[in-house]
Each structure stands twice: as C-alpha cells, then as structure tokens.
C-alpha cells in the first residue's frame, strides 16, 4: 500500500506507514473520500469498501482536499473516481488546488467570500424507506445536479455533508462578481433539479426537494485540520449566516442575506422576507428570496441619486466620433477602447452612442451588442451568440424551438436571399437552437471542426450581406472575457470592414495574454488604415477633483476628505464612485437638509467590497509564490525597496522572477534603480487589497521582520520603524520611535501626524522605565496642543507629565510638568490664582 504522505510502499493491511508513521488510507471508489485502511464502509456515503487487490496499484489520494467531494457527483457505474466531477471544475481551480496539495502552500487568508449552502429536504424520511445502497445511488445522482452549477460559475465545493453541500465563491479564487455567480448557481440548482426529482419519483416512489441559502462576508479561508485529515474550508460568522439562510429557505427557492442583496440588487428580482433570527446576533438578519434574473439588468456601478457628466475624456470622445466619419460615406471601421477596470470604457461608449443618435447622419445606424461575461470564458460563441440573437430577434431566455427555427429561417431569407437553406441550419447551430427533424441530417454527420467552420461561414456571410446594404455596428463589450471561438470569429470579421460598412467596436482590458489583445494586434497590423484605438488612462488629479465636485455638491467639503478620496482612487472614476458610496454607507457622508455634508473626522476609508473583489481577483491570477511576494511587499507599504523585501523573504529563491511577473501584470512598477532598487504598487488600493487578505498572525510576523531590518540598518527611519512595531503589536518597543517620529512631525508642522504618534506613545507610558522618554513625549504633546489652541488638551498633557514625575519620584519631571501647567492655566485659561499656586509648588520641589 502506498503512503499518501511520503509515497513509501507498505505491506497490505498495514495501518501506519513504516517510513513516516502517517496513517494509511483508502479512497472510496464511489465518492473519493479518504478512509482508514481497515474501514469496511465509507463514512461519507456508506458504500462498501472493496478489499484491496495486492496486484493492483494503490488507490491515489485526492489531488487536493477540496477536489475530493467533486468526485461524488455521479453513480460509480457511470464514471470512475478519476474523472468524476473534476470534469466540471475550471482548469484554473484544478491547477491551484493541485499546486496547494503538492506544496502545502494554501495557508489561511482573510477573504470576503460568498457562501452557498444547499441541502436536500425530506432526506431523512426518504432514507428510512430505502435500502442504504439505494439511497446512496439517489444521493449520488442528486449531488451531480447540485455540484455541476457550482463549477459552472467557477465556485469551489468546500464540503459535502451527507445530504448537503457548502460551496465558496471567492475562495481560493476570487472574481469581481462572486455574489452574482453564487446566485446564478443557486437558481440553476433549483431550476434543474425537478427533472431528476421526477426520475426518482418514477423509479423509487419518493419525493424530495432542495433549498439554497447564500451569504457574503469576511471569513478566514484555507486549509484546516490535522495531519489525519485536511480540507479547504472557511470559518467565521458569515458562514453561520449562510447556513441560517439555507435552513429558513422554502423548498425549491434561493434565499440570500442583506449583505449579498446589496451587491446584486440591480441584477435580480427579489421578494423581501423580513428578518431571520441568527444565533449570536442581537438583531435579525434581513433576507430576500431570489425570484429570477432581470431581463434588463441595470448597471451595478454608479451611485443612485448621484450623477456626473463625462469628465476628462474630451480627446477620447473626439477620436471616436472621428472614426465614425467614414461610416456615413459607406466605409467600414474598426474601433477599440481599452483600459483597466473602472476607467470608464462602457461610460465612454454610452456617451458615444448618445452623441451618434443625436446626429442625423448616424442616428439610424443599428447597434447590436455582444457582451462577454466573466463566467462564460469557456462557453463557445457566447458574445457572438448574443449578437446573432439580437439580429434574429430571439429573446435571451430563448423562444420555443419551433418558433426559434421559424425566426431564423425568415431572417436568413431576408438577409441572404436564395441562400437561406444553406445558411439557416448552421446559424441555428451557432445559436444552440434544435433543428427540425427534416433538417437534422445537415449537421448530424459533420465532425466538430466542420461544424465550427460552417457555423463561422454562415455568420460571416449573414453579417457581410447586411453590412453591404447599410452601416451596421457590432459592439463587443468586455472582449477580454470572450471565449476562444468568439475571438476567432471577431478576428475573421476584421476583414469585412474592408468590403462593407461594418463597424466593429471593441472594449477590453489591456491584458496581453488574452485573446482580445491578439485581436487588437491583428487590427493594427493588417488594417491600420481602418483601425482607431483609444487607450484610457487614469484621470489627472484636477480631473478627479472635478469628478468628486460633480458627484458631491458639498460647499465645504473638508480638504482632508477630498484629498483622501483623490489619493485612494488614483484617478479611477469607478474607484471614486465606490469610495464615495462606501463613505455614505458608513455615515461619513450624509444627506441633511437638502444637501450633502461630510464629517471632518474622516481619517481612513476601508476598501469597499466591490473594489476588494475586483482587486483580489487580479491577485488570484498569480501563482502562489508571486502572490506571496506581493503580499509581503504590501506589508512594507505602497513603496518598498528590494533589499527590504529580500530581508523579509530570505527563503524565496525566485524573488526577481516574482517581481518581474508583478510588473508584467501591471500590479507594481519599478520607480528607482540608483542608489537602490525601489518599487511601488500602481494603485494604493491594490496594496491594501493584498494586505487585507493576509492572516493577522502572519501580518504580525512580517511587520516585526521589517522592523528588525530597519532597526539594524536604517535606524533613522523612525516613522517606519514605529509603524511596523505598532502593527507587530510590540508597542513597548515602539515607544521611543513613536516619540522621535512625533517630535520630527511637530518640527515639520505636520500637526495631526505629530498628535497621533505622541498620543499613541503616551497611552503606553506605564510600559516604559525610561523617564527621559516620558518627559519628551508629554512635553512635545503639550506644545503641539498649544500650537493648535487646544488648551485643555495641553493642560491634560502637562498634568500627566506632573503625575508621572510624582509616581516615579522624578523631581525634574514634576517641575517641568507643573511649570508648564501653571503657564497654560494662568495665561490661557485665565485662572491666575491656580497658576501662581502651581508655580509656588514647583519652586518648592525645585528647592528640595
């Protein structure tokens, strides 16, 4: 028997490995669960464990803990443990889980995750009526219908619990739309299970149903357990809320919490259910029943009630309008808009379409939109299919097959007269519409490559015929998410712009490893005279300031609040909107008496969940080693030096390669080489997103490590040392650096910074025996308070100085505190008698 821990061979029947002592295990042939060597039945599904065949190779342990439940999906007769549900898993997820299993690198992380619980209702009563083997067969079939939608939307099956599953959307791989994916998976589960229910009813005569509960929240996700069993899971209050959503859901429905609802309220239709009691919570959790996806979903971006004109894009708009000038005279064009998420590609094109609709020569040009969705990267022709549906007039929810075929044939007769019979069957195949019986022979005997070729030929023929008669705009939105087959179609369409009035309008993120970039390069290389490319850059600071002013008509917006928004957003319009939305949610910006007002005491803004998911999804595309380097760098700060990072990660041999990869992914940039290499995160929020995912215990260790390095080699950087020691929870060790940093800030007239550092130092003065340090801290704090005319604060500081002097029997400290308190009391507070009394007491102490 092969040990799953060290791969050593052991005699059959051995319970522990003779090399490493690891408990030997079998894998259930039905569900893949790892079992003790002497197990007779599977502890998860009840399947009898066959005796090991000495001549057969030992069963392989699951490649990754989280992947094991994926093998539960179908009855053993239908598939082997090896292929199982793994065929439904996204390759990126399989690769990450297998890598983690090999290296043990999947440590815990703090993450905002959307959790989906789904269970089979009525399972206890149904199981009592059947033999355990029969019930196991039924549940295996049910699990396939529960698990397949999870993987369809690239979730992770975390646990399989008898008659229920727990899935994560956002761990270990995050997407910017995980709440939407989870709800879509839940809706697919309750929509697809009735057919299987009917099958079970016919064969075994029993009824059951499923219910789904979903919640979004902060959890610690990662590998947990002991050496005997490890699995990928999440822990935290948010998991309990998700379980409660499932427990209180009606059979056949999807129920979500308010935390999830806030992120998807414009995408689905809901029925409000009121509050649900959750153990440990003082207030009920508001819940909603999802009744379906909206036929015309609204954009989840933007702030309800606030709007701003297009800011800082006049040049880009002029370029786009100029590209359309050839269309009115019958020419074709290729136009693309690229830019990082949130820079305003969709908003710019919306404004372009409005401007064209207002111009007589372009108002009548038809537009057809093929949007690529993030969870359809493996769905062939997804955006192309949307354009064809728009052309044919088929609704997204699909007409009945017969009606759909009639529409396709009528459309082809109009679009390609005399060619409809040769085009319609393949156009129907592209649209995934079943053919009538008398047409099925047209596609039944073609091999997949031939079908693809015929489908593409039919699509191009139709579009060329339409664009030869009148201008036609095909807008491919979010092309960076398009599947390979769609990229191939778009590439073929480039040539149509040379011989028709076709306008290809493409919007994508500038990812050089995506198919959308290949289309961009092909257009520039082969059709430069037709191609107009507009690349969006972040807004300049003045433009960002103008956008904030347009969104928030606040007469007296504090400079500190405005600067905070500008710094955190880095000129990204979407970031600006989400930061403002977050401030509204937290009550930092409120609408009072018909106008917006902001609180002066805003000093920091947490990353909104929408931005956290977007930025984390970028980090999750990195391999584990590179991601770890990025997280370690985030602990140092937005800017970090190479030698600091190298000292923090002495065991990373490929540090240079990881930094190069972070630059290629445009997450960091090199800002200096001389005298030392220095890097910076491109966005402050990217640094914070990387930092926020690190477990607290790991943050403490990393902060302590960088503080040690700076203390040894650069002790003059007192501000950085102080901050890292405080974050490492070594406040006593940080006190001298806090005091020195506060004094330095005071000399530079950085008053708020000086006060913050000195107050933090004085909070822990009982932890130090250095009397000189105590005196410096309180004297500096009192003087800074005086300079801001905070007389009561200054008096308090000097009073504490006197008290510490008395407690420590330190006469100079007492005299200093009493003298300064007398000055403040007598001169600024007007209490002459108290001031003179304090001076007399000070003189007495001094003479003694």
Strand % is 5-15%
Oligomer: single chain
Cα-to-Cα separation, first versus last residue: 86 Å
Categorize the overall geometry: globular
Largest sheet: 8 strands, mixed
How many domains is the backbone divided into? 5
E-strand count: 20
Can you give the mean pLDDT? 82
**What is the CATH class name of the largest domain?**
Mainly Alpha
What's the CATH architecture name of the largest domain?
Alpha Horseshoe
Using only C-alpha atoms, the radius of gyration works out to: 33 Å
Remind me, CATH topology of the largest domain?
Serine Threonine Protein Phosphatase 5, Tetratricopeptide repeat
Broad structural category:
alpha/beta
Helix content: 40-55%
Provide a count of the helices: 31
Low-confidence stretches: 13-23, 29-85, 225-230
A few lines on this structure:
By secondary structure, this protein is α/β, with parallel strands linked by helices.
Annotate the secondary structure layout.
Elements: E1 25-27, E2 34-36, H1 91-103, E3 109-121, H2 123-128, H3 132-152, E4 156-160, E5 164-169, H4 178-204, E6 209-225, E7 230-235, H5 237-247, E8 254-257, H6 258-264, E9 268-276, E10 285-293, H7 314-323, E11 333-338, H8 345-358, E12 367-371, H9 382-392, H10 401-415, H11 420-430, H12 441-444, H13 448-469, E13 472-477, H14 484-493, E14 502-508, H15 515-526, E15 531-535, H16 541-551, H17 559-569, H18 573-585, E16 589-592, E17 595-598, H19 609-620, H20 624-636, E18 639-641, H21 642-648, H22 655-664, E19 668-672, E20 678-681, H23 684-692, H24 696-713, H25 718-727, H26 731-747, H27 751-762, H28 771-787, H29 791-807, H30 811-828, H31 832-847
Parallel strand pairs: 6-8, 11-14, 11-15, 12-13, 13-14
Antiparallel strand pairs: 1-2, 3-5, 3-6, 4-5, 6-7, 8-10, 9-10, 16-17, 18-20, 19-20
Helix pairs in contact: 3-4, 7-8, 10-11, 11-13, 14-15, 17-18, 19-23, 20-22, 20-23, 21-24, 24-25, 25-26, 26-27, 26-28, 27-28, 28-29, 28-30, 29-30, 30-31
